[in-house]
Structure formats: structure tokens, C-alpha cells
Design a protein that fits this description.
By secondary structure, the chain is α/β, with parallel strands linked by helices. It folds into two domains: about 15-160 and about 310-375, 3-Layer(aba) Sandwich (D-Maltodextrin-Binding Protein, domain 2); about 165-310 and about 390-435, Periplasmic binding protein-like II (D-Maltodextrin-Binding Protein, domain 2, 3-Layer(aba) Sandwich). The protein contains 16 helices and 16 strands. The strands form five sheets. The protein has a five-stranded mixed β-sheet with strand order 4-3-5-15-6, sandwiched between helices. A five-stranded mixed β-sheet has the order 8-9-12-7-13. The protein has a two-stranded antiparallel sheet with strand order 1-2. Keywords: Signal.
Length: about 425
């Protein structure tokens, strides 16, 4: 999954068992000694510490969410730590801050930003700090940390996931008497439903299904865009050939010709289903409150049932230049604690990377927009393993966008498509390598 984007109720609230290392209040020692609490070593009468935090984009942590998920919990648990929110904008983009040697203490970013942050030289393996501070990472889903490790090193902890699902328009299914999509459907199933929903009625052309972009399905099989060792396109493969052929099957269903997934689903309301990551932040807008929608599990390949595209794991870490690594890590630990993750799930609709099923069930519990929705469908499939993102991947994606329409229109066959993508992308990659 690439740049971020974007992207998942039972009553549990105050009775939830809080994560070890993340929940207790800080006690002061009267004899000047330190004491163990929640797995951390709490200093008596700690000196005030001021830190800075920056998300790679506002959508990773809106300022109002920062207050709810960082500032307010800190006041209760670690009142000696205050954090300033730094919005990325002209003059305060991460590259600007690196140049000015004012890198924030805490960084929030997505999988697609890893190589940028790595190349800026601001990341550090946080494993030694986690070990030193006895921070328990067993609270995360088993596959989550493996998906963000690079060469066995852990540079961050995840605090949110853009889960994948089918969003569907209830009115269109009702209008045409078609059963709602359900969890566990295969791509073949979706293609058959799409055929039934792609039709013209009273002069309006309705479409059945669209995936989000022209390489989205490739994520699902964890297909690489580039050969990391050779720094060349890896698109000319049996796996990508299969993906392109399936995409064409969907896009050439009569009446389902590809348009704009966003405009057709949200605004025109002529698209019955869209396969996407978390659309809740968009659906929160007032103009979409009359759209009757629900969700079902993302479709999968038959040989890999219930495997969805990789999730965009939103990550939080400490910079390697912070002067307060332990205090910064306390903030990271608090943001990823069960206590704060419950707040996040209930109030912001962010899917949690933690293994706690009760947090999954509470997704959107305090959001009228999500009330009554099939929130368990956000977690119906296990994400495919992530492919480590490389800067060169963008060149391949642009080449796919450039030539795919020639293939879907029938102008070229799939072998010529992959050849054109490979040649075009390799030229672009050679320019990147020369810089």
C-alpha cells in the first residue's frame, strides 16, 4: 500500500483491561528513589519535558484527534510531558525540518513514506529502547510487526490501520433486487454480482463494481513492482499478467466501463460497490449523510481465500535526533496502548492494530455514521504481507496508469502491456538512479 492514504459494537469502555506498560498513573517516590510501574521505570518528581510531533499528513492524525489521543491522555498519565503538534506545510515539511536541524521528536507516517524517511536519515531501530523500557509488544496482532520490520529491524509501532473492504450502496441493491455482498466472496463472485448491477434504468447508467486504482489488486498477491536488487521493473511476470487480465474482465463488463470510483460512488451514486481502504473519513462529510451504505469483506482469489490487500499501517516512532528518547517512547507507547486505541476506535473510526477483539467490536461506537454497520467486515480478511516499498515503485505505477487503458480497450494484449510498462518504467528508474 502506498502513500497514504487513507482507511475499519459491543459495550466494553471502562471495564477493559488496560495494556501492561501503558495505563497506570505515575507515582512519586518520597525517598528520591525510582520505582517500577507498568513495566517502566518511573522517576520521582520528573523534570518537565517538551516534545514535538509531526504526522506526514493531516489525515494521519488530525489536530482534534491529536488532542484526544495524545494531549489529553498525557495530562492524566505523564503530566510532566507536553507535546507540540507540528502540521506539515510550506516551511515545515519534514525535509525542511531536517535541513533546519529541527526534526520532531515523534514522527507519524505510512508504509509508503518509509524510504523517504530512511533516506533523510531520521529513523532508528527502536528495538533496544523497547527492550530497555520493558515495553510489551505482544498486544499487537501477530502479523502486524512482521509487516513493518525491515531486515529484522523495527523502526516504529503501528497505531492505526487502513483496512480494506467493499463499500456498497444499499439503495442500488434494493432497487435491482440483488442480494447484498457478504464476507468471504471471491473475485469470481464479485464479477457475477457486477454483471447483475451494471445496467441502464430510466436513462441512468448504473455500474456494479470498481477497484480503487489500476494496480490495487496486485497488492493482494504481494506482487513487487520492482526488483530491489536490480533496481528495475518486476512487472513482467505471470502474477501481474493474471492481475491485469482480471482487471480487464471487470472493466469490460457491459455497462461497467471504468469511471471515477469516488465520484460515481459518493456523488453521482451510480456505482453499487467500490473496493477500497478506509472511506469513513470521507463519508463523515455532511453532504454524504443521505448515502445509505454498508460494508462487506474484501474479495479474494480462490487459492488465497480471505486474503485482502495489505493494509496501510499508520506508524509512530521517535526520531534518531530526539534529546528525550525515553519520554518520546512513552508517548509512542501511550498512543498504541489499549486505553488510547479504544478511544481511537470508538471516536475516530480508526481500525486498531492491536489483537484485542473488543476494540474491533467497538469500532465507531460513538460515531452515528457507523452505528449499525457491519464493522466486523473490516476485519473479515487477513491482509496479504506487505512488499517493502521503494522509491522506484512510483515510476512503475505511473507506467501502469499510462498504458493500462490501451490494454483494457483491446488495442494491445497483456504481453505487450507488460513490455511497455517495463520499458517505460526502467527509463524513469534510470533517471532516479542518476540523481
Amino acid at each position: 500500500m502506498k502513500t497514504s492514504h487513507t482507511l475499519a459494537s459491543a459495550a466494553v469502555a471502562a471495564l477493559m483491561v488496560l495494556a501492561a506498560g501503558c495505563t497506570g498513573g505515575q507515582s512519586a517516590s518520597t525517598n528520591g528513589q525510582t520505582d517500577k510501574q507498568d513495566g517502566h521505570t518511573a522517576k520521582a518528581n520528573p523534570e518537565p519535558v517538551k516534545l514535538t510531533l509531526q504526522p506526514v499528513g493531516a489525515g494521519y492524525l488530525y489536530e482534534e484527534d491529536f488532542q484526544m489521543m495524545v494531549a489529553e491522555p498525557l495530562k492524566k498519565k505523564y503530566p510532566h510531558i507536553t507535546v507540540e503538534y507540528v502540521m506539515p506545510s510550506k516551511g515545515t515539511m519534514i525535509e525542511d525540518l531536517v535541513a533546519a536541524k529541527t526534526v520532531p521528536d515523534i514522527l507519524l507516517y505510512g508504509i509508503g513514506n518509509y524510504t523517504q524517511y530512511r533516506d533523510l536519515g531520521i529513523l532508528t531501530d527502536i528495538t533496544p529502547t523497547l527492550t530497555k523500557m520493558k515495553i510489551d509488544t505482544s498486544r499487537f496482532k501477530p502479523w502486524v510487526l512482521d509487516n513493518i520490520k525491515v531486515d529484522g529491524k523495527l523502526y516504529s509501532l503501528p497505531y492505526a490501520m487502513n483496512t480494506n473492504a467493499i463499500y456498497y450502496n444499499l439503495d442500488l441493491f434494493d432497487k435491482f433486487g440483488v442480494a447484498y455482498p457478504k464476507d468471504g466472496m471471491s473475485w469470481d463472485d464479485i464479477i457475477e454480482v457486477t454483471k447483475r448491477l451494471s445496467r441502464t434504468d430510466n436513462g441512468t447508467a448504473y455500474k456494479g463494481f470498481m477497484y480503487l486504482n489500476s494496480y490495487w489488486v496486485g497488492y493482494q498477491l504481494s506482487l513487487p513492482f520492482t526488483d530491489a536488487a536490480k533496481k528495475k521493473s518486476a512487472i513482467n511476470s505471470d502474477g501481474w499478467s493474471r492481475v491485469f487480465q482480471m482487471m480487464k474482465t471487470i472493466d469490460t463488463i457491459p455497462g461497467n466501463e471504468r469511471g471515477s470510483p469516488v465520484a460515481d460512488f459518493y456523488d453521482k451514486r451510480i456505482l453499487a460497490m467500490v473496493g477500497a481502504y478506509n472511506l469513513v473519513p470521507t463519508l463523515k462529510q455532511d453532504k454524504y449523510q443521505t448515502l445509505r451504505w454498508d460494508v462487506a469483506g474484501y474479495p479474494s482469489f480462490k487459492e488465497k481465500p480471505n486474503i485482502a490487500p495489505p493494509v496501510d499501517l499508520h506508524q509512530v516512532t521517535i526520531s534518531n535526533s530526539t534529546k528525550h528518547p525515553e519520554e518520546a517512547m512513552l508517548v509512542v507507547d501511550l498512543l498504541t496502548s489499549e486505553e488510547v486505541q479504544l478511544i481511537s476506535a470508538r471516536r475516530t473510526g480508526r481500525a486498531s492494530p492491536l489483537a484485542n477483539k473488543k476494540i474491533e467490536q467497538e469500532l465507531g461506537a460513538e460515531m452515528p455514521l457507523i452505528k449499525g454497520k457491519n464493522v466486523t467486515s473490516f476485519f473479515a480478511s487477513q491482509p496479504a504481507p506487505n512488499v517493502v516499498f521503494a522509491n522506484e515503485d512510483i515510476a512503475v505505477q505511473k507506467s501502469i496508469d499510462k498504458f493500462y487503458k490501451d490494454y483494457s480497450s483491446g488495442s494491445i494484449d497483456v504481453n505487450v502491456l507488460m513490455q511497455k510498462i517495463e520499458e517505460d518504467a526502467n527509463q524513469a528508474i534510470s533517471v532516479i538512479k542518476s540523481k
